[in-house]
Design brief:
The chain has helices spanning 10-22, 33-42, 59-68, 84-92, 105-119, 152-163, 171-178, 189-201; strands at 2-6, 26-30, 47-51, 74-79, 97-100, 126-129, 132-135, 140-143, 146-148, 210-213, 217-220. By secondary structure, the protein is an alpha/beta fold. The chain has two domains: 2-119, Response regulator (Rossmann fold, 3-Layer(aba) Sandwich), CATH 3.40.50.2300; 126-220, Winged helix-like DNA-binding domain superfamily/Winged helix DNA-binding domain (Arc Repressor Mutant, subunit A).
Length: 225
């Protein structure tokens, strides 16, 4: 999933970005409100992890700007302030969740995963499609009763297709959600990873539920037969 982290304190920003990338997310980062606003307004992010106290443009101003522009990115606010009024103010500005510093990185990751499920209207961390079961909490996959070993990139691709099951997704859109601004990869790498997934998920006579729509992209279908 594509995440934007806006945090001016470099050690914390670096730690959050690294943890999210290790959790399989594509992550962009910004060190102040102006830079964060530009990134958020010109990119499509599933979740924005946003510090409130930022130079240039504070987090609540940035959040208000995004909501005014119609952004539907889910926003997790980070702040050292922990009064009821502070939490209410942040949520009333359009935030989806609130995390008080200092926090455990495991909790931040869990909250981001919950926001991703909410964005794609998935309450259950288990997603079952055809003979494939995906556990979005621990990033495990099973084909029938057999565990499937996937790389972080393969898992991220499968999860994105599963969250949008039944929708045709273009190669460009998939690429934009799997790679951050640091990447020099081109969109044809999507075809390669689709091939990897098909080999690993098509087992015991069960067809892989990933189908190609020529000229359009790929779709994960509930009934591949």
């Amino acid at each position: 999933m594509r995440i934007l982290v806006v945090e001016d304190y470099a050690p914390l920003r670096n730690a959050v970005v690294q943890a999210l990338r290790e959790d399989g997310c594509s992550v962009d980062e910004a060190a102040d409100g102006i830079e964060g606003s530009f990134a958020a307004e010109h990119g499509e992010y599933d979740v924005v992890v946003l510090d409130i106290m930022l130079p240039g443009l504070d987090g609540l101003q940035l959040l208000a700007r995004l909501r005014k522009l119609g952004s539907d990115s889910h926003v997790l606010l980070l702040t050292a302030k922990d009064t009821v009024d502070d939490r209410v103010n942040g949520l009333d500005h359009g935030a989806d969740d609130y995390l008080v510093k200092p926090f455990a990185m495991e909790e931040l990751l869990a909250r981001v995963r919950a926001l991703l499920r909410r964005k794609y209207t998935k309450k259950n961390p288990l997603i079952t499609i055809a003979h494939i079961t995906i556990d979005t909490a621990d990033h495990s996959v099973r084909a029938g009763e057999e565990a499937v070993e996937l790389t972080a990139r393969e898992y991220a691709l499968l999860e994105y297709l599963a969250l949008r099951c039944g929708e045709v997704i273009s190669r460009t859109e998939i690429w934009e959600h799997l790679y951050d601004d640091r990447s020099s990869a081109s969109s044809n790498v999507v075809d390669v990873y689709i091939g990897y997934l098909r080999k690993k998920l098509g087992r015991d006579g069960q067809p892989c539920p990933i189908q190609t729509r020529r000229g359009e992209g790929y779709i994960l279908v509930a009934d591949p037969s």
